[in-house]
């Protein structure tokens, strides 16, 4: 017969009391015990008896199994994760001591979690302040627009539903150009850039013509036609989404509207249900998917971040696009990747190195300072061009997901993420405490630099232990 062990649930009891908005005195009255006994229970200085557990469940209407789960294991994980911060790297922290801290000293543990949370937020704020020139007033429209899409997890149900409906109609008519002619009386024409004064797409309302730059490749042509359909046939859905929000400026309003139209265009070209099934069949092979749907590598990568439909969600991804100077021109987060709002990214991330191998897919396992691991797929993409005289721009895009999902991808089949040596990266130098990083550009916020009169380490900076 298994020996029963005392049940210490101090942190969970305290959380329950706070969620209910009760003081220790009020809870003690409800349970017919003393406030001091509640305090001892919350500090794990007394175990929770079976009788008291039953009284809790009866008084506050919850399932015993939900309340008495292995909460201390999750608490232990959170403490262990905080203590993996490189700022503690030179301190011996045995796992047994960490577990004992989480179990026996919940008050100290919670204080440590709160302090580290505040420290992390202050680091972020200081890094952004130091990397933002001047004292800018007001809200940056690009940041506000990105924040809006992130708040929706880059998924807009109404646009996907409308996109599938329109895609079915377009297929019946034989194509998007044919659908425009039949339903809107709009003729699609392809003209040279000098005629279009270097625009990619222009709608001639007077003559009911959609004019497309003829130097665009087939995927870009299809996308520009889909944009026209989104702007004219998804107006109700786009307006409905925007009416629910209030933006700080007309510029933000325009950026969000354009982002929603782009989303709608992607929903037309890659209808949700069909695309989600293809993603599973093709094991997230971006090039294979782009050929199947007649879209570009970047368009497919972008679409993969939107697959959050309830009941048909797929692997969550983070997407970023950068130029050779490191400027970020697009960012979409569906994977919880903690990208810095300001300042340069980590040069050890493969999104910055793929410029050396243009057109080739490069993969990499990443590990952040807090122990989070990701799998990154990066490749260069080209925009513009189309003729000898037309300039082109080469950028790099990266698609990243949690490392645990990597074996589901064509790029990492039969690989156990736990056995792979991941590249240690930071969000940005200002927020990374990896003292031995040779790629560091600036010291992290809050660390004092050691003088190197008599010694020079391999890393650009040495730090004291304070």
From TrEMBL:
Belongs to the short-chain fatty acyl-CoA assimilation regulator (ScfR) family. Keywords: DNA-binding, Transcription, Transcription regulation. GO terms for molecular function: DNA binding; DNA-binding transcription factor activity. This is Putative Xre family transcriptional regulator. Residues 13-67 form the HTH cro/C1-type domain. GO terms for cellular component: cytosol. Signal peptide: none annotated. CDD domains: HTH_XRE. It comes from the Bacteria.
């Amino acid at each position: 017969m298994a020996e029963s062990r005392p049940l210490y649930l101090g942190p969970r009891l305290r959380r329950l009391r706070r969620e209910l908005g009760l003081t220790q005195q009020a809870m003690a009255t409800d349970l017919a015990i003393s406030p001091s006994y509640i305090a001892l229970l919350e500090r794990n200085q007394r175990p929770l008896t079976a009788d008291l557990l039953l009284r809790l469940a009866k008084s506050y209407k919850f399932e015993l199994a939900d309340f008495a789960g292995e909460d201390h294991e999750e608490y232990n994980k959170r403490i262990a994760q905080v203590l993996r911060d490189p700022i503690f790297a030179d301190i011996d922290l045995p796992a047994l001591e960490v577990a004992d801290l989480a179990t026996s000293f919940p008050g100290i543990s919670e204080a440590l979690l709160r302090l580290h949370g505040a420290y992390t937020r202050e680091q972020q704020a200081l890094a952004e302040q130091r990397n933002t020139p001047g004292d800018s007033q007001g809200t940056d429209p690009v940041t506000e627009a990105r924040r809006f899409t992130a708040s929706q997890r880059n998924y807009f149900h109404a646009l996907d539903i409308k996109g599938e409906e329109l895609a079915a109609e377009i297929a019946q008519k034989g194509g998007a150009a044919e659908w425009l002619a039949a339903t809107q009386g709009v003729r699609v024409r392809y003209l040279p850039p000098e005629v279009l004064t270097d625009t990619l797409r222009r709608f001639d309302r007077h003559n009911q013509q959609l004019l497309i730059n003829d130097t665009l490749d087939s995927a870009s042509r299809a996308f520009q036609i889909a944009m026209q359909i989104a702007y004219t046939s998804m107006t109700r859905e786009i307006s409905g989404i925007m009416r629910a929000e209030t933006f700080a400026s007309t510029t933000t309003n325009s950026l969000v509207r354009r982002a929603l139209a782009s989303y709608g265009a992607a929903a037309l070209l890659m209808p949700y249900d069909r695309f989600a099934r293809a993603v599973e069949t093709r094991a997230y092979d971006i090039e294979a998917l782009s050929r199947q749907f007649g879209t570009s590598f970047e368009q497919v990568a972008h679409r993969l971040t939107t697959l959050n439909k309830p009941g048909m969600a797929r692997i969550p991804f983070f997407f970023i696009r950068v130029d050779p100077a490191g400027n970020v021109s697009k960012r979409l987060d569906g994977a919880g990747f903690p990208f810095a709002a300001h300042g340069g990214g980590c040069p050890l991330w493969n999104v910055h190195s793929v410029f050396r191998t243009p057109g080739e897919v490069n993969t990499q396992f990443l590990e952040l300072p807090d122990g989070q691991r990701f799998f990154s797929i990066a490749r260069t993409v080209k925009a513009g061009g189309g003729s000898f005289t037309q300039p082109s721009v080469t950028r790099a895009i990266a698609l990243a997901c949690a490392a645990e999902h990597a074996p589901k991808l064509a790029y990492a089949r039969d690989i156990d993420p736990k056995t792979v040596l991941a590249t240690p990266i930071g969000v940005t130098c200002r927020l990374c405490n990896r003292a031995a990083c040779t790629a560091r550009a600036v010291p992290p916020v809050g660390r004092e630099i050691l003088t190197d009169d008599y010694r020079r380490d391999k890393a650009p900076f040495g730090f004291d232990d304070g």
